[in-house]
Q: What sequence folds into this?
C-alpha cells in the first residue's frame, strides 16, 4: 500500500522489546504502520565523532478502524474563471486590383509650451519679437507666407531635425529670417502648373527680402521624393518644382538636402553663399547663381533625370547685373558676373543603374553666357556625360586650377575636340567627351584634368600641368546625403 506521510506520532515504549526503543505510528487516511526503532550499535570513528546504527521493527499493519487524524480543513473549491471566447481570426482585406498607396498621415502640430503651433504663431512672433528665436512644435504645416513684415534684427525659425514641414514658404518684403532644420514639401499629389519656362517654387524669397538663410532641413517636391529612381514619367513631371530661389542679397543655402525637383537651388542676390548642400534627382540644374561676390563651396550633386530638353548643369552662372551691381536682366547692357569663388564642389551626373530609362547626361560647372571677371574656379570634380565639362565664355582675369573632369562611364575612344558637339540636354551619348573650355583674357589655367582643355580655342593639354584623365587610377566618388 501507499501511505500518505501525514501526522507521524512518537512516544517512548518501555514495555515493548527492545525496551529502549521508540514506538512510532504513521497513519494515512485509512491505514497505519506501527514500528519500533532501537540503537543497534555505536562506534567511535574518531575522537568525538560516532557512527550510530539504528534498528527498525514493524509491529503491525493497522486497519481502517485505527484512529485516524482529523482531516485538515480544505478550502472550498474555487470556481475557475470562465475563459474568454477566442478572438475571431483576422480576415485578409480584399486585394485592390490596381493598388494606389495611401498618402502618409499628416500629423497635427504637437502643442508644446512656448513653441509655435501654427503659421500665424510664426507671423505674430516675427511682428512682436524680432530678434528672438521662434521654436516650432513638431508637425506638418500649411504654406508659410511672410509678407511685408519689414526689417529688423535677425529672427530664427527653429525645428528639431526632421520634425517640421511647411508645404511651401514664400517671403516678400521681409528681410533677415533664418530657417534652421525646417523642411518644405508640397502635397504628394500636387502637379506643378508650368507656363513656358516658369515653374512653381517650394521656397522663394524676393529681392526685397535680403538676409534669408536656410540652414539644414530637406526640400522636396513630393513626400516620396527620395524614391525618385522608381518614378514613372508622370511622377517625374509632377516633381518639376524649383526647390529654392533666394533673390535678396546676403542670402544663403547651408547644408540643405534638395531632392526630386526641376532646379534645386537658385541664388540671385549679391554676396550669396551656398555651402555643404546635397542635391539629387533634378531634371534641370543643381545650383545657379547670377550676382556678384558669390561663394559656392563644398556642394554635391548627383543623379539627373531626363524628361525634357532642359540642359542640366551641376553648377551654372550667368550675368543679370552690371558692374555697379544694378540689376539689368539677362539682356541688359553692361551686365557681368564678378568675383565668384567656386571651390571643392563635386558632381556625378549618374551613379545608379546605367540602363535606367530616365538617366540624363549633365554638364559640369559652367558660365555659358559671359562676361565673367575675377573668378576663382578651383579643386572641383565633375563626372559628366555631356559635352561641356566646364565652359566659361568671355571670362577675364580668372583662375582655373586643379579641377578634374571625367566622362561618367570612363574612357571612350572618340575625338577629343567636342566643342562643336555639346549634347546639352539629351540622353547619354557615349560619343561625347566633356571638355574644359575657356575664352577670354588674363586667365590662369593650371593643373587641371580633363579629356580636352582649351583656352581661346588653343589646347592646353600637356602645358602648365594640365593633363588627360588616367581612368586606371581615378576613383569616382559615391555621393550621398548621409
A:
Amino acid at each position: 500500500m501507499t501511505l500518505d506521510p501525514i501526522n507521524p506520532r512518537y512516544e517512548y515504549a518501555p514495555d515493548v522489546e527492545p525496551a529502549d526503543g521508540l514506538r512510532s505510528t504513521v497513519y494515512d487516511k485509512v491505514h497505519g504502520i506501527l514500528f519500533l526503532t532501537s540503537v543497534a550499535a555505536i562506534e567511535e570513528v574518531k575522537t568525538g565523532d560516532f557512527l550510530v546504527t539504528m534498528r527498525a521493527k514493524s509491529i503491525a499493519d493497522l486497519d481502517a478502524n485505527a484512529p485516524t487524524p482529523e482531516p485538515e480543513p480544505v478550502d472550498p473549491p474555487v470556481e475557475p474563471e470562465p475563459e474568454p471566447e477566442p478572438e475571431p481570426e483576422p480576415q485578409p482585406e480584399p486585394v485592390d486590383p490596381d493598388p494606389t498607396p495611401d498618402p502618409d498621415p499628416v500629423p497635427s502640430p504637437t502643442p508644446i509650451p512656448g513653441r509655435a503651433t501654427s503659421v500665424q504663431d510664426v507671423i505674430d512672433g516675427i511682428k512682436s519679437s524680432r530678434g528672438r528665436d521662434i521654436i516650432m512644435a513638431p508637425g506638418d504645416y500649411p504654406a508659410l507666407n511672410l509678407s511685408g513684415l519689414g526689417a529688423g534684427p535677425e529672427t530664427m525659425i527653429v525645428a528639431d531635425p526632421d520634425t517640421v514641414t511647411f508645404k511651401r514658404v514664400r517671403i516678400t518684403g521681409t528681410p533677415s529670417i533664418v530657417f534652421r532644420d525646417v523642411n518644405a514639401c508640397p502635397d504628394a499629389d500636387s502637379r506643378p502648373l508650368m507656363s513656358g519656362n516658369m515653374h512653381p517654387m517650394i521656397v522663394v524669397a524676393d529681392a526685397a527680402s535680403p538676409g534669408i538663410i536656410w540652414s539644414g532641413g530637406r526640400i522636396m517636391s513630393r513626400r516620396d521624393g527620395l524614391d525618385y529612381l522608381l518614378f514613372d514619367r508622370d511622377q517625374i513631371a509632377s516633381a518639376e518644382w524649383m526647390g529654392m530661389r533666394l533673390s535678396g542679397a546676403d542670402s544663403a543655402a547651408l547644408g540643405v538636402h534638395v531632392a526630386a525637383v526641376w532646379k534645386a537651388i537658385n541664388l540671385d542676390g549679391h554676396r550669396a553663399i551656398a555651402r555643404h548642400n546635397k542635391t539629387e534627382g533634378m531634371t534641370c540644374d543643381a545650383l545657379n547663381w547670377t550676382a556678384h561676390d558669390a561663394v559656392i563651396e563644398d556642394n554635391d550633386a548627383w543623379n539627373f533625370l531626363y524628361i525634357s530638353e532642359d540642359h542640366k548643369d551641376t553648377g551654372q552662372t550667368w550675368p543679370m547685373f552690371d558692374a555697379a551691381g544694378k540689376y539689368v536682366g539677362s539682356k541688359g547692357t553692361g551686365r557681368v558676373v564678378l568675383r565668384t569663388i567656386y571651390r571643392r564642389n563635386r558632381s556625378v551626373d549618374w551613379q545608379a543603374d546605367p540602363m535606367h530609362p530616365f538617366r540624363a547626361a549633365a554638364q559640369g560647372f559652367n558660365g555659358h553666357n559671359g562676361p565673367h571677371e575675377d573668378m576663382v574656379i578651383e579643386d572641383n570634380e565633375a563626372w559628366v556625360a555631356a559635352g561641356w565639362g566646364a565652359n566659361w565664355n568671355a571670362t577675364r582675369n580668372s583662375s582655373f586650377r586643379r579641377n578634374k573632369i571625367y566622362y561618367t562611364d570612363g574612357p571612350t575612344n572618340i575625338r577629343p575636340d567636342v566643342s562643336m558637339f555639346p549634347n546639352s540636354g539629351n540622353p547619354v551619348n557615349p560619343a561625347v567627351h566633356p571638355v574644359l573650355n575657356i575664352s577670354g583674357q588674363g586667365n590662369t589655367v593650371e593643373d587641371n584634368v580633363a579629356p580636352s582643355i582649351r583656352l581661346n580655342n588653343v589646347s592646353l593639354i600637356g602645358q602648365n600641368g594640365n593633363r588627360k584623365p588616367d581612368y586606371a587610377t581615378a576613383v569616382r566618388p559615391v555621393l550621398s546625403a548621409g
